[in-house]
Amino acid sequence: MTDTERQIVILALANLKSDDPNLWGYARLRKAIFFLQKEEGVPLGFHFQLERERPISPQLQIFLEKMKYEGLLKFVETPHGYRIRPSAKGKKMLEDNPGVVARYKQEIQSTLNKVEHMTLTELRLRSLDVFLKNPE
Hints:
The protein is α+β, with helices and mostly antiparallel strands. Helices cover 57% and strands 13% of the residues. It has seven helices and four strands. It has helices at 3-15, 26-38, 58-69, 88-96, 98-103, 105-115, 120-133; strands spanning 49-51, 54-56, 73-78, 81-86. Helix 1 packs across helix 4 (88-96), helix 2 crosses helix 6 and helix 2 runs parallel beside helix 7. The longest helix is centred in the C-terminal third of the chain and has 14 residues, at 120-133. 32% of the residues are buried.
């Protein structure tokens, strides 16, 4: 998968809406990307390692920061912390690449369905379980 395709998949995930307007905080988005790769089989290519009982990916962290720097993601401050959303530039990228979005639409929606109502503690415990079942 190319970096552009990875960006599109992440943008498509962050663009999904839920009944929770504060859905995509930093931790939830990173865990959702982890599940998208590990459980749904989307070949994002991020390497995860276990640190303090949670799977982390420095590569993913840098990738998200680069997407922010390039103006694809915007970090909006709310009373609940920062929330991540596609910027206008990110939404245009989604519109310009419907094939990539369509290719992974089912996996992205399935990931949203898994994570949208989980607490951060539930996300942490589930991601640990998934990592231990599928170590790298």
